[in-house]
Amino acid sequence: MKYGLLKYFSYNLNIGDYMQLEGIKQAYKRMNISKEDIIEIERDMLADYEGGGEYVILPMTGYFAVPINVWPLSPKIIPVFIGFFAGDEVVAKEMAKYEKFGPFGCRDLVTMKLMQQQGVQAYMSGCFSIGFEKRKENPQNGKIYLCDPPEELIPYIPRDYMENAVELPIPQRNMKSPGYKEDNEKMAKEYIDHMVAELKTNAKLVITRRLHMALPCIAMGIPVILAHKCDSGLVEDCRFAGLDRIVKVYKPKEYGEIDWNPKVPDIEWLKEKTIQLGMQRIREAEQKWRLLCELSEYYESAPSQIYYSGMKASYLSEQQKQMFLKNAWKLERTVFEFITKKDFENMHLVLYGAGDKGKWAIRRYQDYIRRAAKFSIVDGDVNKHGKGINDVMPKDSWDFCYVENYIIENPQIIRNIRKENLVVVITCDKYYAGAGAEIGNMLMKEYSLEEEKELYFLDKLNNSMDLHMSVTSTPVSWLHGF
Questions:
Q1: What are 206's strand-pairing partners?
Q2: How far is it, in rounded angstroms, from Cα 173 to Cα 196?
Q3: What tens digit of pLDDT does each residue of 348-390 get?
Q4: Element (DSSP H or E) covering residue 468
Q5: What is the pLDDT of residue 125?
Q6: Following DSSP, what letter does each residue of 244-295 receive, concatenated?
Q7: Cα–Cα distance between 205 and 334 in angstroms, integer?
Q8: What CA–CA distance (Å, rounded) separates 264 from 134?
């Protein structure tokens, strides 16, 4: 079993994401958990985590909105819900499904109430960004730092403060590469480490509207002026609900009353309790789940066992359908890309099976085939290799439109395709037995393909070749495709 930390490959960096991890890092340090036993998992891809077969205890300490690949969590994750913020009721409902991993320790009072409304036990654990160690001494000639203060606050800041102030980069900033890239993660960590060291050494005052700049600075012993951007509103109020016990939060109507020489509140006792809570919850999870996970890992790692269900590889669950419908307007991707988690512009799509169903699939999904970066059709029958699909499967009553005469290739070409681009769709009948099952097991054993990652099935189709929907009221027109 491993211990987890969230990480963020995102193109748009929010320093608060990383600041919230500090209390968990301190808990791991005190628990003498070695670096080798700590793994980092991308927050927006928790549903895809596999971990090489190892289970992981993961403190869910962070901000959760409605990213596609978070819910449901990977079965390899043992979540510990502490210090988290739920973006809305949809997220709260998803989290409430994990009641057996509760109680739910919330970052703020609004999230706490939101979780309690779902009928689960919830309390306010506070924010783990207060986990930073306090500096040993204050700077002799310190600097004043501005971190994205409200524009409306600028006229109120004393002139001598502004003349010598150091303006920090906006906490939410675009990184090196679009998308989820390791370069972004590395750059973000370097930026934050440098910024924290700079503030700890030189800051005599920080003026900001950012919660996760204010709380870490107070934890490090740095005076802070924290100002709202507006007098009221859910976004502002919910982020500070409860946490305003630590530091005064000035609203625009109070800007004229700001104390420009604030003292640092003593929160060492609060920091200690927060870290102790983190340690307690992690130990509880370890005590409850370690033995179960170790036994299961042993059986799951049997090298000769090929387990293949074929049940989820080519259709959407009710939950996925609702998620797709809710987010289709901003996904800009087809349901096929949604299922495979790969985009057409990078995809090498392979149909396995040059029989009648394979030809039907070519006709039905011609648009997908043309949009894919590369397309191949393969078959295990050596007598078909090098021939066109129309040569081995002549025109029949099903051919309402022309099918391009794609050349049938040897399945060995799959070995030379990069896994991150590969999507293999088995077009044979009987995903649960017979030819389809044999091919599926062969591809997993000999080619190391993973079901629902590189390997999919078409057997879940009705007579019109639409995606099998199961019983649902979801409009099928939204879900055309594989």
A1: 145, 224
A2: 17
A3: 999 999 988 888 888 877 888 889 999 999 999 999 999 999 8
A4: none
A5: 95
A6: GGTS-EE-GGGGGG--SSPPPP--HHHHHHHHHHHHHHHHHHHHHHHHHHHH
A7: 50
A8: 11
β strands within 135-202, DSSP E: 143-147, 166-167, 172-174
What pLDDT score does 105 carry?
97
The parts of the chain modelled with pLDDT lower than 70 are 9-13, 67-68, 170-182, 230-239, 303-333, 395-402, 429-434, 458-482
Q: Is the bond preceding residue 171 a cis peptide, omega within 30 degrees?
A: no
- State the pairing for strand pair 172-174/12-14: antiparallel
Residue 146's contacts (CB-CB under 8 Å, 6 or more residues apart) are 165, 166, 167, 168, 206, 207, 208
Across 370-412, the runs of DSSP E, i.e. the strands, are 374-378, 408-409
Going through 318-388 in order, the beta strands assigned E by DSSP cover 348-352, 374-378
What predicted TM-score, i.e. pTM, was given to this entire model? Answer: 0.68
- Predicted local confidence at residue 11, as pLDDT: 55
First to last CA, the chain: 36
Q: What is the pLDDT of residue 171?
A: 59
What is the structure's pLDDT at 444? 86
**Which of 125, 98, 2 is closest to 53 using CA atoms?**
2
How far is the C-alpha of 218 from the C-alpha of 211, rounded, in Å?
Answer: 11
Q: For residue 37, give both structure tokens.
A: 């036993």
242: left (phi over 0), alpha (psi -120 to 50) or beta: left
All residues at 6 or more sequence positions from 152 whose CB lies less than 8 Å from its CB, including other chains: 229, 252, 255
Query: Backbone phi, then psi, for 282, in 5-degree steps?
Result: -65, -45
Which residues is 455 bridged to in the sheet?
424, 451
Residues with Cβ within 8 Å of residue 418, at least 6 apart in sequence: 348
Among 137, 132, 139, which residue's Cα sits nearest to residue 203? 139
Q: What's the CA gap between 129 and 82, in Å, rounded?
A: 12
3-state secondary structure 199-232: HHHHEEEEEECCHHHHHHHHHCCCCEEEECCCCC
- pLDDT value, residue 56: 97
Distance CA 30, CA 134 (A): 16
In which order are the strands placed within the sheet that holds 408-409?
408-409, 374-378, 348-352, 422-426, 455-457
Structure tokens at 224: 């802070």
CB 371 within 8 A of CB 365: no
Cα 452 to the center of its chain, rounded Å:
17
Q: Classify 27 as helix, strand or coil.
A: helix
Q: What residues contact residue 130 under an 8 Å CB cut-off, 6+ apart?
A: 22, 23, 215, 216, 218, 219, 246, 267, 270, 271, 274
Q: What is the pLDDT of residues 235-259, one digit of tens each?
A: 455 567 777 888 888 989 999 999 9
The span from the CA of 429 to the CA of 427, in Å, is: 7
